[in-house]
Design brief:
This protein is an alpha/beta fold. The chain has a single domain (about 1-180), classed as Rossmann fold. It contains eight helices and five strands. Helix 3 packs parallel to helix 5 (about 100-115). The longest helix has 26 residues, at about 45-70. The chain is globular.
Length: about 200
């Protein structure tokens, strides 16, 4: 089974992926932020590095999806291949941080990859307000994220909501994370698990 966790920067995807991996004994596929050779450069000079970063993410996630399907294991994935193509890349293009030429090149590459993979069996979307995202980003204190603007996060949030509204790749649950603390409050995590259980049982 392939489960994926989606959501804006700071929504709690990695944390929830790890907690659910432990609970369900699923293998976790985490986003490559530590070894990503473009992230620092991108946040310092978005226009110069946007295409390189997006192609890196696309390549990384395409590899993950192929591995997931070939492994035959139950895997939970931190962020999907769709978010890059429907949210991050179009946002950079719309903000004038990715040229038309690069965006068209990127989009055709994504379409080719998308034709070769299937969507996850279950998508978990973490919905969050901007103040909550800002609070979480500051709390984890990654240097390269200090320069992320509220405008940038807001644009991403709008695109996430539009994407989720039209999502048709499979089953989806939406979890509002503003008033949930699944790290320190076991009841909150239990609530999330109950919601997921109900969907998983509907898959079989």
């Amino acid at each position: 089974m392939h489960v994926a966790v989606a959501g804006n920067i700071g929504a709690g995807k990695t944390t929830l992926t790890k907690l659910l991996s432990k609970h369900y004994k699923w293998e976790a596929q985490l986003e490559d932020v530590v070894d990503n050779p473009y992230l620092d450069d991108f946040y310092n000079q978005m226009e110069r590095w946007s295409f390189n970063l997006q192609v890196y993410f696309l390549n990384s996630r395409f590899s993950q999806v192929l591995q997931i399907r070939q492994s035959g294991k139950s895997i939970i994935q931190d962020r999907t291949i769709y978010e890059d193509a429907h949210i991050f890349a179009p946002n950079l293009h719309a903000m004038g941080l990715m040229t038309n030429r690069d965006f068209e090149n990127y989009s055709s590459l994504f379409e080719l990859m998308e034709s070769l993979v299937k969507g996850p069996d279950l998508l978990i979307y973490l919905r969050s307000s901007i103040p909550n995202l800002v609070k979480q980003i500051h709390k984890r204190g990654r240097d390269y994220e200090n320069s992320i603007s509220i405008d940038y996060l807001s644009r991403l949030n709008e695109r996430y909501e539009a994407w989720v509204h039209g999502y048709n790749k499979g089953k989806m649950v939406i979890i509002d994370v503003d008033n949930l603390d699944f790290v320190d409050n076991p009841e909150d995590l239990g609530q999330v698990i109950n919601t997921i259980d109900a969907e998983i049982h509907g898959l079989f």
